Amino acid sequence: AQRVTQPEKLLSVFKGAPVELKCNYSYSGSPELFWYVQYSRQRLQLLLRHISRESIKGFTADLNKGETSFHLKKPFAQEEDSAMYYCALRRYNQGGKLIFGQGTELSVKP
Amino acid sequence: ETGVTQSPTHLIKTRGQQVTLRCSSQSGHNTVSWYQQALGQGPQFIFQYYREEENGRGNFPPRFSGLQFPNYSSELNVNALELDDSALYLCASSLTGPNTDTQYFGPGTRLTVL
């Protein structure tokens, strides 16, 4: 079965420190991976997707098929990065169904 | 261009009742997906509608049903409510094919079953 695991429920760092939010997945085929973010009192929104290979708000994520991981990284955390982050997987030919991890709450302290 | 909207915002029902949740897609989007998010969990896929036809279903019982209308708005119906149905229900719309495009989420409907 397809599964997305985010091992940390809460990650707390100081402003300016590097951040890495972990995401591991299990899937036998070729997945499409995403990071979604939910800021306080806002709706869930796409942060980035692996096929775009882009950096959004200083965040990057690389798909490592060997380790089945898609960790989200930022070299210098900002207070406005505090939010819930969800890693999600999509299988092709599955109607666009997204499989989400349980989420990691990132808290950036001043 | 308006975003995805959902109604109502909050809802309280009792066990055994039926509920209908509504979702208006972002302008021009033809695909709607519904998710259930229990407290402290990530969203779980319920089903998806593409051009008024069901196009994929998650591991939810038949008492969870849906509709998509010609204007691409959608409804989620839940019959015989159970306490475990208490959750945030999210809908997400996307443009063109369901396998290719970004899903844009609504704010959710918070359902409480007593």
Describe this structure in a few short sentences:
The complex is a heterodimer of chains A (about 110) and B (about 110). Chain A is mainly beta.
Walk me through this protein's architecture.
The complex is a heterodimer of chains A (110) and B (114). In chain A, strands 2, 5, 6, 9, 10 and 11 form a six-stranded mixed beta sheet that branches. A three-stranded antiparallel beta sheet of chain A has the order 3-8-7, with no helix packed on it. In chain A, strands 1-4 form a two-stranded antiparallel ribbon. Chain A is globular. By secondary structure, chain A is mostly beta strands. Chain A has strands spanning 3-5, 10-14, 19-21, 24-26, 32-38, 45-49, 60-61, 72-74, 83-90, 98-100, 104-109. The mean pLDDT of chain A is 91. Helices cover 0% and strands 50% of the residues of chain B. By secondary structure, chain B is mainly beta. Chain B has strands at 5-7, 10-13, 19-24, 31-37, 44-50, 53-57, 64-68, 74-78, 87-94, 104-105, 109-113. The N and C termini of chain B lie far apart (37 Å). In chain B, strands 2, 4, 5, 6, 9, 10 and 11 form a seven-stranded mixed beta sheet that branches. In chain B, strands 1-3-8-7 form a four-stranded antiparallel beta sheet, with no helix packed on it. The A-B interface holds A 4, 6, 43-46, 49, 86, 88, 90, 92-103 and B 3-4, 31, 33, 35, 40-45, 48, 50, 55-56, 58, 90, 94, 98-108.
